Amino acid sequence: MTEITAKSIDEALRKQLESLDTSVDAREVGTVVQVGDGIARVDGLKGAMAGELLEFIGEGGKTVYGLAQNLEEEEVGAVLLGDVTAIRENDQVRTTGKIMEVPSGKGLLGRVVNPLGMPIDGKGPIKADGYRPVEFKAPGVISRKPVHEPMQTGIIAVDSMIPIGRGQRELIIGDRQTGKTAIAIDAIINQKDNDMICIYVAVGQKASTVAGIMETFEKYGVMDKTIIVAATAADSAPLQYIAPMAGAAMGEYFVYNGEDGKPAGPENLGRHVLITYDDLTKQAVAYRQMSLTLRRPPGREAYPGDIFYLHSRLLERAVKMNEEYGLGSMTALPIIETQAGDVSAYIPTNVISITDGQIYLQTDLFYQGQRPAVDVGISVSRVGGSAQTKAVKSVSGTLRLDLAAYRELKAFTQFGSDLDKSTQDQLNRGARMTELLKQGRYSTLSFEEEAVAVYAGGKGFLDDVPVSDVVRFRNELIEFLRASHADVLKKIHDDAKFTPESEAALNAAIDAFKAQFVA
Amino acid sequence: MPNNRLLAKEEVATYSGMLLDAALEQGGAERVLEVREQLDFVLRTYRGNADLREALGNPAYSPEQRHTLAVNVFDGIDPLAVSVIAVMAERGDLDKLSSTVNAYRNAAEEKLGVAVVDVTTVVALDDHLREVITEKLSADLGKKVVLREHIDASILGGIIMSTNGKRIDASVASELEHARIVLKEENDGGEC
């Protein structure tokens, strides 16, 4: 054991203080002219940079940080990030010469932090590996690679028909109480056994909801690879505004650095990150509040003119890096809440146009018991099949067609006319396929299990199973395969596709299961 | 109320120019710097008091009432400064007070060829130190320097100098703060 002496402490301190620059600190200073609504107007600071971190010296020397936002001829408009009440008119403001940074690194995994990176889970201080800027320019064309690896959510409806790739930006959109957060949480829970690092950014949510989500992650064993960035409804608008960017900065650490914390490269691979922004509607509202109090001109729905740029630069940070930069990826799942299904409102249309597809959730479907309430007709993934395993891809084509035919025919059956056998068969198949997509919360499936479920439906194994028993059939079939035919699942997993042998084995296994299935 | 930016600038220039000319006429450089000091005080008072701002800018009061209010509130302040502020209050121009004071500071320093530097120390400066600081600053700024001395024990030692929005901090308190940040970052890892 190393002995701790005064000399060793002195040496350690001297070593740490080697980088101390004792040169005189020259900075610009200004004075607070007006403060209120979380905004301060500062006289002076003619050399302040846009987005620069400002130091407000309040009563008794208390320092509160702020962000320079409006650079005007005589004044600077800044948003305050800390204790607003500590700042008064005539207080001194200093420039810092740097933009806002948040702590990042492995130490944040398993923690709940505020958008400034400070722990709020009561588990003690965080040992960060370093700091990263909140505003960071997204990588350019040269360092990127097309999205090609699947990011499994474990949800059949999503993975089979709206596949998400690593590095993709897939919007989850729908009214309140349609299960948007549930999809994002299930997607995170499904990463339990792989190399994905997850970040959940909660914007403007209730603190109790965030606590509940943390508990869920802990219960399903994914909290140790997850960071929760929480700007709750009680936090100020500036904190809600920077929360998604702070989450992205924490995620970028893993994408741009290898396991050893050194920059990623061909020899030192970057990691894969899944980041959920829940939700960007509230971030937009917070930014609108900030902009209006900063007296920026309001535009459509009173949002400022740069609201599109706010979201586009955030989502552009989702990336799939190429070999030279270590192949890391950041997949973004932004969430947008619509009002009464209106996707043509300002923020939804903006984010729809920025993202690489959307998962659209419908209130009607939700109340009909179709959960997750994904409307597969209008949900799309623009990256599509290139981010899908061959096994799922080969069976999902049939699923899409069956469902499309079902939707079309179902409209006709409303007239109550007599139906021929083939139409009746298509309707039966469609009803079962729709039923097959129902999935409970926290019951994610691996890709081979999803493939098997869709395969069973597509090949007609479900045709004689009553619709009400389809979900039970699927669940019991998967249990049966796990217990008695693990080799079949393993083969599909290893090959990542259906081979004639695995298909034959699977058919036999499903037949064996059907023989014992009691409807 | 004129919202034209150029018009507003002209008004600010008129107020500050008028004040400077009057101060120069009354007592030269010393008087100019005295008025500068008084204006700083008025600006701090005006900014720090929401009720005062509200009252002096309230259009419900007649211009004469606002004039009288300004004269009464700033009773005891330099009459020259008060007279201009009262006119500004009367005309509803007090939102330009900050710009006017800034313009006066700049114009005064330019006219007199001096730079006013605020110097904060823990103990009062002796003559020798004052001379050394003045000489050094004059050489750096390229003009004659007028020191405004302040005492503040919280800086622990060293000196803080500020002029025209620039601040040079060579205090012991800030050195210690730097050391604290370096030690913290040494443990946190710095930029990554």
Task: Describe this protein's structure.
The complex is a heterodimer of chains A (519) and B (192). Chain A has three domains: 29-99, Elongation Factor Tu (Ef-tu), domain 3 (Beta Barrel); 103-388, Rossmann fold (3-Layer(aba) Sandwich); 391-516, Up-down Bundle (Lysin), CATH 1.20.150.20. Chain A is 37% helix and 20% strand. Chain A has helices at 6-16, 156-161, 180-189, 207-219, 237-256, 280-293, 307-315, 346-354, 363-367, 390-413, 421-436, 447-458, 470-484, 486-495, 500-516, and strands at 25-36, 39-44, 52-57, 63-71, 75-80, 92-99, 101-104, 112-113, 130-133, 171-174, 196-205, 226-232, 272-278, 319-320, 329-337, 357-361, 380-381. In chain A, strands 8, 10, 11, 12, 13, 14, 15, 16 and 17 form a nine-stranded mixed β-sheet that branches. A six-stranded antiparallel barrel of chain A has the order 1-2-5-4-3-6. With 192 residues, chain B is an alpha+beta fold. Chain B has two domains: 5-110, Peroxidase, domain 1 (Orthogonal Bundle), CATH 1.10.520; 113-188, no CATH class. Chain B contains seven helices and four strands. Chain B has helices spanning 5-48, 50-56, 63-73, 79-90, 97-112, 127-141, 172-188, and strands at residues 114-121, 144-151, 158-163, 166-171. In chain B, a hairpin with a 2-residue loop joins strand 3 (158-163) and strand 4 (166-171). The longest helix of chain B is centred in the N-terminal third of the chain and has 44 residues, at 5-48. At the A-B interface, strand 1, strand 7 and strand 9 of A face helix 1, helix 5, strand 4 and helix 7 of B. Chain B: GO terms for molecular function: proton-transporting ATP synthase activity, rotational mechanism. Chain B: It is found in: Cell membrane; Membrane.
